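subagent[fold] <- orchestrator: predict structure for attached chain, return tokens only, no commentary.
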Amino acid sequence: MNLFNDKALYKEYTVIIGCGRLGANLANTLSDKEINVLVIDSKEESFRKLSPSYGGLTLVGDATDINILKEAELDKASVVLSVTNNDSTNIMVAQMAKELFKIEHVIARLYDPERVCIYKEFNIETICPALLSVKEINKLLEVKEIN
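subagent[fold] -> orchestrator:
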């Protein structure tokens, strides 16, 4: 796969690992904003979650395989989002993106809040649904107490 004949044409290129609900929604949103997007998932049927108007690329494969990341031309990505449903996969892909491909902006979804320290050591931003839910519930409780 040769995505980039002229690198100047692709100032913004986002690679999303995982095409579940979150990955598909992110891909659809970025595609709608005309941002170049490539989604990698190990199961081809996962791409059915993408909208009919999705204008990006898809790649079937295991994102922990360096050859798949090379095929995706990860080294040209401005952002890598690892949002599979597996913390270990997200950690591994995020570390590979940072260390091997020198991607500055890497974001990974994390289910286990106790693993946040691993990501911080590698300067990887995290989104943790459990922590976000706690924050939102606390906000709702504060509003209820004020009323």
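orchestrator: received. Logging for downstream: The mean pLDDT is 88. The first strand starts at residue 13 and ends at 17.
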